[in-house]
Design goal:
The chain has a domain of 173 residues: Rossmann fold (3-Layer(aba) Sandwich). It has a six-stranded mixed sheet with strand order 6-9-10-3-11-12, sandwiched between helices. A four-stranded antiparallel sheet has the order 2-1-4-5. The protein starts with a strand and ends with a helix. The chain has eight helices and twelve strands. The protein has 252 residues and is an alpha/beta fold. 35% of the residues lie in helices and 29% in strands. The model has no long low-confidence stretch (mean pLDDT 93). The structure holds adenosine-5'-diphosphate and magnesium ion (MG) (2 copies). Belongs to the ABC transporter superfamily. Ycf16 family. One of its GO terms (molecular function) is ATP hydrolysis activity. Keywords: ATP-binding, Nucleotide-binding. This is FeS assembly ATPase SufC.
Length: 252
């Protein structure tokens, strides 16, 4: 089954070191949550893993089934099975959602193994139904004029169709009302499998009532400073982060 091992990952933005040595091991079937105050580097971790050009990796490795994804280009990472649902998905004018999805699926499947149009449409419409999305969204330009909740559902639709090995969800809960949160979480839970690991980044414990993590990690100042089970998320929700700082002697 899938194995993803991040070892000593360091990354900088505009010359400033943000990630100061991240170690994390995710196995297929596991859901890991990363929580932490704003500005501690959670989104930077997601972006560095996906190869966003603004984030310079200055050390460490991230082995997906033995291959260092940090050595790969952005497209290669997606092909290898990395998927990121973003906090702020971008809008792309001139590309319809369905065209975007089909080319992403075909890139993931590889040359000579492209999905037929009929099969693609059937799959897409099936998943859209599960996510309670109107199928007209297939023909709209990617994310253009989508509400916050629609964008997030669309990210989950992409995930469902791409069948990735490692899924990173960056604050997928932000801006979602309870109904949308339930639908999005059901979509994620339906994708749980021995071949897939999840990294769920969230500022609030609420999401973790819907997507139940096996492990919870606290990130502060570019490091994972504490790891535990779901009870850790509950304590953070009740008591905030100060006790972690005190315990570790972190001054900010
Ligand atoms: P989090 O997701 O935990 O709230 P981020 O990873 O977004 O934190 O940010 C961590 C730090 O890196 C912050 O100080 C932020 O200002 C800085 N940073 C992140 N992305 C950029 C960027 N594209 N340009 C400049 N600074 C950035
Ligand atoms: Mg933030
Ligand atoms: Mg963030």
């Amino acid at each position: 089954s899938t194995q993803f091992v991040i070892d000593g990952l360091k990354a900088s933005v505009e010359g400033k070191e943000i990630l100061k040595g991240i170690n994390l091991e995710i196995k297929g079937g596991e859901i890991h949550a990363i929580m932490g105050p704003n500005g501690t580097g959670k989104s930077t971790l997601a972006s560095a893993l996906m190869g966003h050009p603004k984030y310079e990796v200055t050390g460490g490795t991230a082995l997906l089934d033995g291959e260092d994804i940090l050595e790969m280009g952005v497209d290669e990472r997606a092909l290898a099975g990395m998927f990121l649902a973003m906090q702020y998905p971008s809008e792309i004018t001139g590309v319809t959602n369905s065209d975007f999805l089909r080319s992403a699926i075909n890139a993931r499947r590889g040359e000579g193994n492209e999905i037929s149009l009929i099969k693609f449409i059937r799959q897409m419409e099936g998943k859209m139904k599960e996510l309670e999305m109107n199928t007209e969204f297939a023909h709209r330009y990617l994310n253009e004029g989508f509400s916050g909740g629609e964008k997030k559902r669309n990210e989950i639709l992409q995930m469902m169709l791409l069948d990735p090995k490692i899924v990173i969800l960056d604050e997928i809960d932000s801006g979602l009302d309870i109904d949308a949160l339930r639908i999005v979480s059901n979509g994620v839970n339906a994708m749980r499998s021995e071949d897939r690991g999840f990294l769920v980044i969230t500022h609030y414990q609420r999401l973790l009532n819907y997507i139940k993590p096996d492990f919870v990690h606290v990130m502060m100042q570019g490091r994972i400073v504490k790891s535990g089970g779901p009870e850790l998320a509950e304590r953070l929700e009740n008591e905030g982060y100060d006790w972690v700082k005190e315990e570790l002697g972190i001054v900010d």
